[in-house]
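Section 5.1 Outputs to date
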Amino acid sequence: MISYYFGSKEELYLSIFKVKIDESLSNTQKIIDRKDLNAWEKIKLLVRNYSNRIKHNRNFYLIYQREQLSASNDFIRKFLFDTKQNFINAFQEIARQGKSSGLFKKQVRIDVVITIISGSLLNAYNSMDMYDSLNVIQKSKTSEKFVNQLIMNIEMILKPLFGYDENN
């Protein structure tokens, strides 16, 4: 059946990647286009949405991260490159919006921003079982608190990078 609909297992694999990433990019674009949010609120919402996507699609993001590291297939490598470029463009647009409105005072390196967000959240979710077994956190009781604290810390790190001061 797989051959009938997708041609091969690899085509099925690529189709799953495409659906998940297109969904993510679509959600990101909807946030960028919102007029009721300022640039900082958009960044906060993007971080929280990314966290929720990882939480609800952990297996996919494990595969995604593995593919980023190995990318043995040229098509997947190009697809991942294009996907990363789309997210960079999205964050650049939000940074531009924030800078032009005077909300952000600094020019920020978007690659650093994306690395902080994705690296922190992917590591947190991928390490949760290990933390649980080491009794650092009890997954069933405190994982949500752990992730919320991490998100707050990510926001605290991003504020000075963008030159955002909520009091001004």
